[in-house]
Design a protein that fits this description.
CATH superfamily: Conserved hypothetical protein from pyrococcus furiosus pfu- 392566-001, ParB domain
Strand order of the largest sheet: 1-4-2-3
Helix content: 40-55%
Strand content: 15-25%
Order of helices and strands: EHEEHEHH
Number of domains: 1
Number of strands: 4
């Protein structure tokens, strides 16, 4: 059974091989979202506390000075499965972002 556990931000280890690199601007945007709306999507971690999904949220939490973040520990995945999950999730997120932009492009015009 998966459960959400608040863990100290300092105990979470970011994966240096994360397929996605977040810009400072992206981290600021994520932090603004967390500050405004709350931290509603738990960080996924492996059995050793390494982040599988949620690198940007962890960086944003650090920026906000948060002591703890919600996590879900996925102990049942092999190292190969973790890597495949990270790549797939980042790819799906990117595809979804592109699809949303296409669907809503008229709203984005002049929004800069």
């Amino acid at each position: 059974m998966l459960s959400i556990v608040d863990r100290p931000v300092g105990e979470l280890r970011l994966d240096p091989n994360n397929p996605r690199v977040h810009t400072r601007n992206q981290i600021r945007q994520i932090a603004r979202s967390i500050k405004t709306l709350g931290f509603h999507v738990p960080v996924l971690i492996d059995a050793q506390g390494q982040v599988i999904s949620g690198h940007g949220r962890v960086l944003a939490a650090k920026r906000l000075g948060m002591a703890h973040v919600p996590t879900i520990q996925l102990e049942h995945l092999t190292a190969a499965q973790v890597r495949a999950f990270m790549i797939a999730e980042n790819r799906l997120t990117e595809d979804n972002r592109r699809s949303l932009w296409i669907q809503n492009r008229s709203q984005f015009r002049g929004a800069r």
